[in-house]
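Issue: copy button drops trailing tokens. Both records pasted manually instead:
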Amino acid sequence: MTPGNFEHAVAELCRRDGCRNVRVVSGSGDLGADVLATTPLGKVLVIQCKRYDADNLVGSPEAQKVGGTARPVHGADEVAIVTTSDFTVEARRYAALPSVHIHLLGGQQLIRWQADGWQPPWL
């Protein structure tokens, strides 16, 4: 699956789970957003998608880029990073900061979300 196909697959999962106004906005100049949507509760959702090999973890710099743009640039209420791999300890620490609060969905959680709708990344 190409990175673009991965972004569209994540967008389809959002649609399946009740999001509206779902669109893929990836590419040069996306400013940290690959999928924009409105959650079932009416919140603006920004998702950054990272299709990485299992040994290539999403690091703090990628999380910081999303954290620095999702709310001020895209007006996000909920922010998530979805990856096929996992996250470094530093990325998890950054995402957990109360002033940042980014939902992280690693490969194992992605499999569960896809298979049975387990906890979408905006919850």
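Record 2 (pasted manually too):
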Amino acid sequence: MMLPAITEVLPHRGGMLLLEAVQRYDSAGLEARATPDAAAWYADAAGDMPAYIGIELMAQTVAAWVGLTARQAGLPVKQGVLLGTRRYQPACAAFAAGRPLRVTASPVYRDESGMGSFLCEIACGEDRLAEATINVFEPEDFALFLQESSAQ
């Protein structure tokens, strides 16, 4: 399978698109590449990416896996939301600018209602920099979901 450009899989654009490319994809998970940029909106005083941005790296990797899985099944790619994580464990305070990161996401649980849980990891070379289990929700009708959510 030829891997598509990341912009074909994710709706994020400009500075909000944190992933550069899909490196590997199969039913067991996805591996993406991201390189922190010292000139980006998120850069700290040293030009590095604060480790808390890693949750968004993981969420985008999950979204890429879900999108590619839908495309493979001939289904439209739907929008989803990050519900959160119980435990995000970064091994450092920031990810160094210019050093490529390997972000992986593997499904642990998915159901028909759109709920899902993914085991995620961020690494640089052989060093594991962060890990978490990310919980997501892919509503059947995203616009209705947003409308109902904002009415509460």
